[in-house]
Amino acid sequence: MIRIAYSLYIWIIFYPVFLVLTILTAAITLAGCLLGGERIFAYYPGMFWSRAACYLALCPVKVRGREHIRPNQSYVFVSNHQGAFDIFLIYGFLGVPIKWMMKVGLRKIPFVGAACRAAGFIFVEQSTPQAAARSVKEAEQSLRKGASVAIFPEGSRTPTGKMARFKKGAFQIAADLHLPLIPITLNGPYKVLPIGSFQVKRHRMEMIIHPPVSTEEVEAGHKGLQQLAGQTHQIITSALWEEFRV
Description:
The chain has one domain: Glycerol-3-phosphate (1)-acyltransferase. The protein is about 45% helix and about 15% strand. It contains nine helices and seven strands.
């Protein structure tokens, strides 16, 4: 009975309210950024929207490790990618402004794509090596301006809840700029809304923010990036719930 009531709540209340909030958030972000307020409007509307999504879904959220983030320091945040609610967890509860590196296809979403462009988010083009390299350079330019970026190095959501291999883009950016890299472990979003599903399910979610990983002594070249990716993969895996470990 409770499951049926929750399912009705999701379709009758959650989705309509979420749609309205999404349009409002995109409009406020777009207008604020175009009027010169990118520093504020690229972050706060999206933060409140993300928190609202979690609260509306009635999903409890637990965050650990915020003390590892130093104010006024640029970071490359990398996380496992369990489901659509990963974005809400990080954007809503990380506690610092970030620029997202996101799939180029998201640029086509009405309102949202335009707002993301205005906010300075980076759309990752993987069609050719040259296009991928341009995405990396664009992210590095944002970091040089004092921003932090958030990246899902798996590239897409996992179909099983377990992590896939990491692509090198995030680690290339951190190593090129000698910026600290912060691994983030997400647990629970796969249970809430896995890839391919539209039925939101109530489940607790957890975000663990790990201590920064220095990139100062990372060896140049493929081998060094591979080692950094492997180290980060192990750190994120260490805090996964048992069912999500390989």
